[in-house]
Amino acid sequence: MKMNANPCEDFNWNDLLARIARKNVVPVIGEGIYWVNTLDKENVLLYPYLAEKLVNETGLAPLIPNETFYQAVSRFLERNPNAYLSVNDFLSRHFKTISPVRDGPLWKLARIKNFSLFINTTYDDYLEQMLKSVRSHTVDTVHYTVNDKGSRSPEQSIFKMLREGQRSLIFNIYGSAAVSMAPAYTEKDILETIVTFQKDMEIDRENKLFQTLESSSLLFMGCGYDDWLFRFFIRTMSNKQYDLMNRPQSWQFINDDFQAFNCGRLESFLKAHAVEIYNASGNREFVDRLFREIEEKHPDDIIQEYEFPGPAFISFHGKDRAAAEYLAARLLEDGIKVWFDQWDLSAGDLVDEKIAKAIAARAVFIPIVSNAARQIQLDDGKSVKYHIREWEWALGNKQKGENPVCIIPVIIDDTDWMYESFKKYAYLKIPGGGRTGEYEKLRARLREILDNPGQARQS
User: Fold this and answer.
1) Which CATH architecture has domain 305-457?
2) 0.85 exceeded by the pTM?
3) N or C, where is the chain less crowded by C-beta within 10 Å?
């Protein structure tokens, strides 16, 4: 089948954007969205990379053209039927050395505010990582597998918070390499999972997840299934007959590389049933365009970088960078992300503007106080050091009542000095920025603020 020459213009962007603005779109994402950096390659698709690694490490015959990860695993498990834990170990080992591409599709999807529920078809936790790095509220993950015991459904009470943008939920429909004993790795497993999921949808009519899927438009991105499986998957997720899919409230949107899977018949079939299809040569192009469309037409629906979570901004003299970073890393290990320039500034940023916005958006400001920090002015005796400018920005916001910030000075060495304007605030002593001194008091205070954001503004 001949592909459209200009797929961007044929796609119904206005309808999709309107539905996203009404919080009525659920992304269903697959392997084609997961662009990562690995130890030996940069900017590659994760699961084709893992398929190649699996073949090489297990002695399978060479990959067939366009072989997906589930096809490679199917070949491995046919030879080793009880080796699911070996696949889990294989994935967990490689996941430790892989990181999602910054500015990649996952990162951009995480920044779209009106996406609060995600249906995920991969076996990693990278989507969870991205959401937690970008969003300030709680991110829940539920794993659905046929073979594992225990609850396969999210708590019903969280759906009101999803709707209000106070929570995010990832539903891993095939399980997880880290959590599930036997994720749905093979084509047979995937088929059984989809069948069971469809039965559950029919039986448990009060389930909020199933109700949400039935009443929402679904946006399929990068799922990459063969013809028959994709038809079945779409039918199950929406729980509607194909001849009813042309109703406006149940339109589906699909971005996938049909050309790669020789799915021309599938494409014709879906178009005949009012499914909007973006015929891109790659899923990344679609997410880039989607992000750009929302950013241009609904900018408030994009989470800006200065809004990224972490209740605190750490400010320091350049000579104290190592201690400041050590403190930031310890807090991150304890589940508390802070704004730290080396992590959160990128080449080309308007530094003053971005830092000022980041300070204004934080609930807590942590100035690092030290012997080095006593150097307030530059050598000309007129201009002040950059860390002092940051301190004055925070104090100015507090005095003007614009997002009043809780200021917690942290002393990291034996200095007996304190910036004059900070003397009225209770300080903590954390030598070297490590888990010593009064670190636990700081950690507990930041955790309290994360759980009750309004309290910091009253401090």
Assistant:
1) 3-Layer(aba) Sandwich (3.40)
2) no
3) N
